[in-house]
């Protein structure tokens, strides 16, 4: 049995003149403190590669995946998928860590993300 659906009419509105976005104001310490307890995901990206689904399905124990980075090259520190810093991988008490060697400026972080995505 099919249900009947009632559609409600809507009115088209017209927007007024578009104003240019206001220049961002400097963020105060008080405003920033509201975000201190917000959780974010940090990840260290060693490298990337592209492959077909056939190649991915063929992976198994012992398979080697070639990445777009050279050994010893800095790795990226990502916050919610966006690069914010670079560093070197270190081992501390049999656990991996990252020694930050460079904090990326907002523009170079965007460029790094685009370059990594294109690779």
Structural features:
119 residues; alpha+beta; cell membrane; membrane; Flagellar motor switch protein FliN; flagellar rotation; cilium
Description of the structure:
- It is a peripheral membrane protein.
- Belongs to the FliN/MopA/SpaO family.
- This is Flagellar motor switch protein FliN.
- This protein has 119 residues and is α+β, with helices and mostly antiparallel strands.
- The chain has a four-stranded antiparallel sheet.
- It has helices at 29-33, 53-57, 106-118, and strands at residues 42-45, 75-79, 82-92, 95-103.
- The model has no long low-confidence stretch (mean pLDDT 85).
Write the layout of secondary structure elements.
Elements: H1 29-33, E1 42-45, H2 53-57, E2 75-79, E3 82-92, E4 95-103, H3 106-118
Q: Using only CA atoms, what is the Rg?
A: 23 Å
Structural class: alpha+beta
Pick out the low-confidence regions: none
Residues in helices, as a percent range: 10-25%
**Helices and strands, in N-to-C order?**
HEHEEEH
Number of strands: 4
Instruction: Calculate the mean pLDDT score and round it.
Output: 85
Strand content: 15-25%
DSSP summary: helix tally:
3
| Major β-sheet strand ordering | 1-2-3-4
Main sheet summary? 4 strands, antiparallel
Given the C-alpha coordinates, what overall shape results? extended
> How far is it from the N-terminal to the C-terminal residue, by CA?
53 Å
GO molecular function: cytoskeletal motor activity
Domain Flagellar motor switch protein FliN-like C-terminal: 34-104
Keywords: Cell membrane, Cell projection, Chemotaxis, Cilium, Flagellar rotation, Flagellum, Membrane
Pfam family, one: FliMN_C
């Amino acid at each position: 049995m099919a249900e009947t659906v009632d559609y409600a009419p809507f009115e088209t509105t017209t927007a007024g003149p578009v104003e240019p976005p206001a220049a961002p104001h400097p963020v105060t310490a008080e405003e920033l403190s509201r975000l201190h307890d917000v959780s974010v995901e940090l990840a260290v990206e060693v490298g990337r590669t592209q492959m077909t689904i056939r190649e991915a399905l063929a992976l198994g124990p012992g398979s080697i995946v070639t990445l777009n980075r050279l050994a010893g090259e800095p790795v990226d520190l990502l916050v919610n998928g966006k690069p914010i810093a670079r560093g070197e991988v270190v081992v501390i008490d049999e656990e991996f860590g990252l020694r930050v060697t460079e904090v990326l400026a907002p523009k170079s972080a965007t460029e790094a993300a685009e370059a990594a995505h294109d690779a």
